[in-house]
Amino acid sequence: MGPRITQNWDKFLTGGARGVFSDDTGPGGSERARDRVMTALADLGPGLGDVVLRCCCFLEGMETVERRMGWSARSGKIVLRIALTRLRAHYDEENGNWSPLIG
Fold first, then answer.
1. Domains plus CATH for the chain?
2. For the chain, where are the alpha helices, taking DSSP H only?
3. The whole model's pTM is what?
4. Which 8-state DSSP code applies to residue 20?
5. Which of 25, 35, 70, 81 gives a 20 to 30 Å CA spacing to 19?
6. Are the CB atoms for 84 and 52 separated by under 8 Å?
């Protein structure tokens, strides 16, 4: 989610938008996406936000997350399920039941 430092293939693959930007392309798109993620994580709170960030964004395995967070074995699965339920509720509140940001 950092700034683009490599070639942007979006216009190459789609033929270009001919100067028209959608919501998340063009200047400031990555900053807006980062702001949405930070808002969602803040809504989850420190414990649930941490497990979602580690599992979904950093792609850490559940055993690694449990060990780093100091949790007992198999407790991370329950916490992650609660966190993902709350995350879905967050996006439903933001965008309605047909949120374009979560499947």
1. 16-95 (1.10.10.10)
2. 10-14, 29-44, 46-52, 62-69, 75-95
3. 0.64
4. -
5. 35
6. yes
